[in-house]
């Protein structure tokens, strides 16, 4: 059994840098954009459960094989995709990973760019709460006093801000995601 | 539960765990939540990692000039410089206004000093402890709003008692370090400042600036290197911080360190400097050594690398 510390290090250093590629792969092979976050979470959960019995030698192949299986199972379960389409899924071996996105540690410059873009994309109030937290090091209580709003507001804005900033830093859109995504059936992009 | 819902709960835990007042009971509840599902762990670890990545950024916002931008095209740089100059004059104006308020009277600062090769721990009035490494001078003062330390020279490790009402600030030449958490080390050599954080968080800002523009948050396991106007925060790997605070145990720890750098470290502790011949300065060495036992270090270089040690009256020469 792999202990939690090892598992967490593996997840953060080997798996999370692949997140931009993984997200692209899911988006390309699934027609509903709104499902991508859930699918990705399922991939991570399955990857961690499997890795608990022993860390894989090649994380990339391992992760995309899991992603492919999850897409196939989901497609069968939902009966929304014909079997031909499933067979068309890119084989895990052929997934293109861009070098920049898969580096283990972000170069300081890229990290800065992502952080700044992430901050700019936040709504003003949310941005201010994140700034007070990150730059001023304030607790929620201190931030609530500084901004003259309730603790609930700070708490909600900070949760949204942390999620959006984490997403931006991991190479995502950094878009604010509400708890209940609207189930609009958009066709897949591209 | 959708991924977004799990992530929202995870964000709540992350916020509370960062704040003071986190109890053992809270930690137990958090552990139970994490244990309940691998999906919880995936969401929490991902969020914590991404949020921490954002931590390492100097200046979430206004002053790109403090970030290393070696390959920046000239045109962009000019724009930055202009913005920087504007910001600087604005800051000057703000400082000017701030200086009108009468200074708060405080007791004269207490002075602490260690000789070359000495190491000493002192307890400050508020219960915080400061360990001074070799050849270090610092002053400490306590006011109604803030506790302040001036590191004039050398290196010190700080273990700070958390007081939400009174900030703890370390002034180190061109930078000031505002303590948000607890334990960290600061090394100063002229205007070069290095900050290594063992636990908690600190904020490193420009001394000349009244605002938090150009501030960098340094978290547990991270090291901030400040050279002139550049701040580079690297980390997530506790090894480097451990090596940088090993002096507290009387040790110097090297990992793939150029011989020149390693010898410079030993020279900080001894009155008899070691000089390294130019052709061997780049030899990489590793291992841990006692700060006061340069002889053991030299013996190793003699036997392992076949280097020649020439022990003179006032200095030791090291050559091939």
If you had to describe this structure to a student in words, what would you say it looks like?
The complex is a heterodimer of chains A (190) and B (320). Chain A is mainly alpha-helical and 190 residues long. Helices cover 61% and strands 0% of the residues of chain A. Chain A is built from 9 helices and no strands. Chain A has helices at residues 4-15, 19-29, 36-51, 59-78, 83-87, 108-121, 124-134, 140-147, 151-169. The termini of chain A are far apart. The model of chain A is unreliable at 98-104 and 179-190 (pLDDT under 50). Chain B has 7 helices and 18 strands. Chain B is α+β, with helices and mostly antiparallel strands and 320 residues long. Helix content of chain B is 31%, strand content 32%. Classes of the chains: A mainly alpha (190), B alpha+beta (320). At the A-B interface, helix 1, helix 3, helix 6, helix 7 and helix 9 of A face helix 1, helix 3 and strand 13 of B.
Order of helices and strands of chain B: HHHHEEEEEEEEEEEEEHEHEEHEE
- Please give the most extensive interface between any two protein chains, plus how many residues each contributes: A-B, 53 and 51 residues
Sketch the topology of chain A as an H/E string, one letter per element. HHHHHHHHH
By DSSP, the count of extended strands of chain A is 0
Residue-averaged pLDDT of chain A: 79
Oligomer: heterodimer
Question: How do you describe this structure in short?
Answer:
By secondary structure, chain A is mainly alpha-helical. Chain A contains nine helices and no strands.
Question: What keyword list fits this structure?
Answer:
heterodimer, A: 190 residues, mainly alpha, Arc Repressor Mutant, subunit A, 2 domains, 9 helices, globular, disordered C terminus, B: 320 residues, alpha+beta, Jelly Rolls, Phage tail protein beta-alpha-beta fold, 3 domains, 13-stranded mixed beta sheet, 3-stranded mixed beta sheet, 7 helices, 18 strands, 31% helix, 32% strand, WH-like_DNA-bd_sf (chain A), RNA polymerase sigma factor (chain A)
């Amino acid at each position: 059994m792999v202990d939690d510390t090892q598992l967490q290090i593996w997840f953060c250093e080997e798996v999370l840098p692949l997140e931009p590629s993984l997200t692209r792969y899911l988006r390309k092979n699934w027609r509903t954009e709104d499902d991508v976050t859930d699918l990705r979470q399922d991939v991570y959960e399955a990857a961690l459960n499997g890795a608990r019995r022993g860390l894989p030698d090649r994380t990339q192949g391992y992760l995309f094989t899991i992603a492919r299986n999850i897409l196939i199972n989901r497609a069968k379960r939902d009966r929304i995709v014909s079997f031909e389409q499933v067979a068309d899924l890119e084989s895990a071996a052929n997934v293109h990973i861009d070098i920049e996105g898969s580096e283990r540690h972000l170069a300081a410059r890229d990290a800065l760019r992502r952080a700044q873009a992430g901050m700019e994309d936040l709504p003003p109030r949310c941005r201010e709460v994140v700034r007070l937290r990150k730059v001023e090091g304030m607790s929620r209580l201190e931030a609530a006093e500084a901004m003259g709003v309730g603790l609930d507001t700070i708490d909600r804005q900070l949760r949204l801000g942390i999620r959006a900033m984490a997403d931006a830093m991991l190479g995502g859109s950094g878009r604010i995601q509400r708890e209940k995504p609207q189930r609009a059936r958009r066709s897949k992009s591209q | 539960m959708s991924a977004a819902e799990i992530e929202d709960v995870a964000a709540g835990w992350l916020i509370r765990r960062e704040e003071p007042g986190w109890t053992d009971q809270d930690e137990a509840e958090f552990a139970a939540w994490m244990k309940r599902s691998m999906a919880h762990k995936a969401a929490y670890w991902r969020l914590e990692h991404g949020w921490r990545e954002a931590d390492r950024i100097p200046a979430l916002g206004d002053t790109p000039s403090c970030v290393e931008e070696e390959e920046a095209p000239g045109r962009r740089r000019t724009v930055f410089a202009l913005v920087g100059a504007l910001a600087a004059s604005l800051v000057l104006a703000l400082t000017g206004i701030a200086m009108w308020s009468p200074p708060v009277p405080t007791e004269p600062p207490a002075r602490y000093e260690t000789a070359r090769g000495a190491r000493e721990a002192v307890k400050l009035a508020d219960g915080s402890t400061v360990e001074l490494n070799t050849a270090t001078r610092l002053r400490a003062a306590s006011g109604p709003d803030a506790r302040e330390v001036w590191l004039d020279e050398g290196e010190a490790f700080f273990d700070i008692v958390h007081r939400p009402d009174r900030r703890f600030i370390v002034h180190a030449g061109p930078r000031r370090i505002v303590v948000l958490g607890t334990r960290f080390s600061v090394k100063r050599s002229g205007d070069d400042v290095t900050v290594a954080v063992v636990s908690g968080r600190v904020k490193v800002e420009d001394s000349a600036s009244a605002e938090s523009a150009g501030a960098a948050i340094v978290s547990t396991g991270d090291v901030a290197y400040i050279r002139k106007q550049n701040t580079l925060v690297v980390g997530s790997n506790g090894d480097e911080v451990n090596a940088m605070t090993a002096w507290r145990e009387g040790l110097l720890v090297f990992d793939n360190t150029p011989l020149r750098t390693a010898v410079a470290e030993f020279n900080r502790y001894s009155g008899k400097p070691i000089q390294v011949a130019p052709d061997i300065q780049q030899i990489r060495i590793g291992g841990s050594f006692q700060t006061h036992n340069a002889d053991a270090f030299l013996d190793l270089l003699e036997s392992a690398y076949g280097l020649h040690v020439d022990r003179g009256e006032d200095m030791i020469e090291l050559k091939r």
